[in-house]
Amino acid sequence: MSALTMNPYCERCGHWTSKREFILPGGVLQNAETHLAQGDLTALLALRPGTCPTSLRNLVLNISLCPKCDQTAFLSVQVRTVEVD
């Protein structure tokens, strides 16, 4: 990973990947698990908010793609919880 960008390196073509972040509202968390297990990113990004569009728990997808060859991609997934004092 690049120390400055923290993006993975594409060994196939010798370029650093570029990162995009997608935040999916908490209402999609139950459906997201199935799509993640199947590796179906298209269906995951198509999910719409469920019954909790203002949830304090959101699914965060960080996708790093090689801008040159489009053959290298990395996905990290986390549940981000917002706490209000």
Key features of this structure:
85 residues; alpha+beta; two-stranded antiparallel ribbon; 2 helices
Largest sheet: 3 strands, antiparallel
Category from helices, strands and their pairing: alpha+beta
H and E string:
EEEHHEE
Shape: globular
Strand order of the largest sheet: 3-4-5
Tally of alpha and pi helices: 2
- The number of strands is 5
Q: What is the oligomeric state here?
A: single chain
Q: Assign a percent range to the helix content.
A: 10-25%
Residue-averaged pLDDT, rounded? 79
> Which band does the percent of strand residues land in?
25-35%
Low-confidence parts, pLDDT < 50 over ≥5 residues? none
What's the N-to-C terminus distance? 36 Å
Q: Any idea what the radius of gyration is?
A: 15 Å
Query: How many structurally independent domains?
Result: 1
Descriptive account of the structure:
The structure is a single chain. The chain is α+β, with helices and mostly antiparallel strands. The chain has one domain. It has two helices and five strands, in the order βββααββ. 9% of the residues are buried.
Structure, briefly:
The chain is α+β, with helices and mostly antiparallel strands and 85 residues long.
List the helices and strands and how they pair.
Layout: E1 9-10, E2 15-16, E3 18-24, H1 29-38, H2 41-45, E4 57-65, E5 73-81
Antiparallel strand pairs: 1-2, 3-4, 4-5
